[in-house]
Design a protein that fits this description.
The structure holds 2 protein chains of 2 kinds.
Chain A: E1 3-16, E2 19-32, E3 36-40, H1 47-54, E4 62-67, E5 70-71, H2 77-87, E6 88-91, H3 103-114, H4 118-131, H5 147-159, E7 165-169, H6 177-192, E8 196-201, H7 204-207, E9 212-217, E10 220-226, E11 231-232, E12 236-237
Parallel strand pairs in A: 3-8, 3-9, 6-7, 7-8
Antiparallel strand pairs in A: 1-2, 1-4, 4-5, 9-10, 11-12
Helix pairs in contact in A: 3-4, 3-5, 4-5, 5-6
Chain B: H1 2-21, H2 23-61, E1 65-69, H3 79-82, H4 90-99, E2 105-118, E3 121-131, E4 143-146, H5 151-155, E5 160-163, H6 165-172, E6 181-184, E7 187-195, E8 211-215, H7 216-223, E9 232-236, H8 243-257, E10 269-272, H9 273-316, H10 318-326, H11 331-364, H12 374-400, H13 404-409
The chains are: A alpha/beta, B alpha+beta.
Chain lengths: 241, 411
């Protein structure tokens, strides 16, 4: 089955005091295996809410959400945790690493929650760190690493469970443009290895790395289509039709 | 289950790191539990010591004994009536003794309080129990030297005494008292035996360690008129199951001996030691419960300290909780993690408290009997473990039910 995410008419309404806030009004979308999707939108557009929804951190007020053919919109906390653990790899703007643990332990953690035994855990975490180019930094703590390296650790942590999707929320937001570009190159490599990536950003030039862009405004999808002027990180710009 | 073990190990590792990075805070919090455990353990050890001492005292006097006495020893709500009873005389004792078939041993006791002297060394206000050689069979006495007075000495009211261990220490210091002489009211007595320590401080002056035993005839010969005090007849039943029958026999013989008619009430009482045990439980038992409760309060204060610091810890680590939840930690994982942390702090305080209590109890043992046994170890570890779980639960639960989206947004 090629279809990973299938969302039909989902809405999310928050109750703020006496007022109802419609963060998402009516959103439907499908994402298939090995897609590279950018979700764009200004702040307050409902972009973050959609991301939380896609990442199974939150459930919609109404509508239907199937993940890998499994209905998740009625799931309880613990089942959602299991989906997040096995199927979703998160990469955050602020890296969100555990500051008291070294790189290896940070990367290993999802496998702890997945119940993988210690030796296999260590092997897979080392492998993931090597794949993001940090094979020689496995015992460094986050504060001993640069921003770019921290984000690589976070990416390794996202990859280590071999998830169905990588969900990256403004992954370059806290990095300088050179380092940001390196990270985007890494994402492209990961994509080319057959992974599915969802990138949340408000920067046009970051979104151009993806193959498909979804624009959100006022809780609705404003645009959904291929990136016409896709930027391939190795210094070439190609045109897709 | 496998998952749970991995998570538990992870929880332990996280807890150690968290505690290490907040050393002062953790030590201060653990101190609360330390104090609580020290006081609870010391209290229970002291209670145990007092109880053991009491039980030893009771059994040194003989657990299967009956005491035929003018008075009802415990719960005498009709003292105004028993007060007017005739004294039990030594002749009545003799008549009972010849008629009784069931007892293992029967001995009269009459007491007087006198001062004993050995040269310059004196013991004032010493309880002297006058009895017969058969008295020994009603007790579980052991001797550090010599023997109890024998039948000939008893019948002949020879000037012989047996000293309690404290009395011997007071009168002879570290020397042997055997075959030495002491003076009571100017009369010379030969020491034929010294009791080994019976160790029952709870019995006060009735403690055998503080008494002098001598043939009953001497009491009447030298110290007081034979009708001055009522005789108490100590009766030892063959075994515990014979107590009831021995008691019934004693009642019927004593009624005859005292010349009571069919319709008259008993003008004597048959007492048992369980009365003493009951009285002890009623008074000392209540004091012990109150003591445990009060020391328990200090542990409770420690537990509140843990709970407080765990709430702070959860709040500080909201972001971390969010991260863990995002990458797949379940509620119970987070719950277990924080409870583990609370348990570790508690157990650290508890084990330190246990060590403190051991040291203190060794010191206290010089003044008061304490009985430190493995139960105290289990008690301390068990209580601190339980306290950790109980005081960690509420903070851990708050952490476990956090919304991951909110938690991740927390700065």
């Amino acid at each position: 089955m090629n279809n990973i995410i299938n969302i039909e008419h989902i809405a999310k309404i928050y109750q703020v005091g006496a007022e109802e806030v419609r963060a998402l009004s009516d959103v439907s979308l499908r994402i298939d295996r090995n897609e590279y999707v950018a979700i764009m939108g200004p702040s307050g557009s409902g972009k973050s809410t959609l991301m939380n929804m896609l990442g199974c951190l939150d459930t919609p007020t109404s509508g239907k959400y199937d993940f890998n053919g499994i209905n998740v919109n009625r799931m309880k906390d613990n089942d959602l945790a299991r989906i997040r653990n096995k199927e979703i790899g998160f990469v955050f703007q602020t890296f969100n690493l555990l500051s008291r643990s070294d790189a290896l332990h940070n990367v290993e953690l999802p496998l702890v929650y997945a119940g993988v035994n210690m030796s296999e855990r260590k092997d897979r975490a080392r492998e993931a760190l090597a794949s993001v180019g940090l094979g020689d930094r496995i015992h460094h703590k986050p504060n001993e690493l640069s921003g770019g390296q921290r984000q690589r650790v976070a990416i390794a942590r996202a990859l280590v469970t071999k998830p169905s999707i990588i969900l990256a929320d403004e992954p370059t937001g806290n990095l300088d443009s050179k380092t940001g570009e390196d990270i985007m190159t890494l994402f492209n490599d990961i994509y080319l290895k057959g992974n599915t990536i969802i990138l949340v950003t408000h920067e046009e030039y970051i979104a151009e790395h993806a193959a498909r862009v979804i624009k959100i405004k006022d809780g609705l999808i404003e645009h959904d289509g291929p990136v016409l002027n896709r930027y391939i990180p190795n210094g070439r710009k190609i045109l897709t039709s | 289950m496998k998952n749970f073990l991995f998570e538990l190990r992870e929880g332990l590792a996280i807890s150690f790191r968290a505690i290490k990075s907040n050393k002062i805070r953790s030590v201060l919090t653990a101190t609360g539990i330390f104090i609580g455990i020290v006081s609870v353990v010391l209290m229970s050890v002291a209670i145990k010591g007092i109880n053991t001492s009491f039980q030893n005292g009771i059994s040194a006097l003989g657990a299967d004994n009956l005491y035929i006495d003018k008075f009802k020893w415990f719960n005498d709500d009709q003292f105004w009536k028993t007060r007017n009873r005739k004294n039990i005389t030594i002749q009545e004792y003799e008549r009972y003794r010849t008629q009784a078939k069931l007892p293992l041993a029967v001995a009269p006791t009459v007491w007087t309080v006198q001062t004993a002297k050995n040269g310059g060394l004196t013991t004032e206000g010493t309880l002297m129990t006058g009895t017969t050689n058969e008295y020994l069979a009603t007790t579980n006495f052991t001797f550090s030297e010599g023997r109890f007075f024998n039948e000939i000495e008893s019948k002949g009211a020879r000037n012989v005494v047996v000293l309690g261990s404290d009395v011997a220490k007071n009168l002879f210091l570290r020397e042997s008292a055997l075959d030495q002489f002491i003076k009571i009211k100017g009369v010379k007595f030969k020491v034929v035996g010294v009791l080994a320590e019976q160790g029952s401080f709870i019995m006060g002056n009735f403690n055998p360690d503080k008494q002098i035993y001598l043939p009953v005839g001497n009491i009447f010969k030298y110290f007081q008129n034979s009708n001055f005090r009522s005789v108490t007849i100590t009766v030892r039943a063959v075994n515990t199951s014979m107590i009831q029958q021995t008691m019934e026999e004693a009642e019927s013989i004593m009624r005859k001996v005292r010349g009571l008619s069919y319709s008259e009430e008993n003008d004597f009482s048959i007492n048992r030691q369980d009365g003493m045990t009951k009285l002890y439980d009623q008074t000392v038992g209540v004091i012990q419960l109150v003591g445990l409760f009060i020391t328990g309060l200090s542990l409770f204060v420690g537990a509140i300290g843990i709970m407080n610091i765990m709430f702070v810890s959860v709040k500080e680590r909201t972001k971390e909780i969010g991260i863990r939840k995002a990458i797949g930690a379940r509620r119970r994982t987070i719950l277990a993690q924080f409870i583990t942390e609370a348990v570790i702090i508690c157990m650290t305080g508890g084990i330190a408290g246990l060590i403190g209590a051991v040291i203190l109890s060794i010191i206290i043992n010089r003044f008061l009997p304490v009985s430190f046994q493995y139960e105290a170890v289990i008690l301390a570890i068990g209580i601190s473990f339980l306290t950790g779980i109980l005081s960690g639960f509420a903070p851990a639960y708050t952490a476990a039910k956090m919304d991951p989206v909110e938690a991740l947004r927390y700065e």
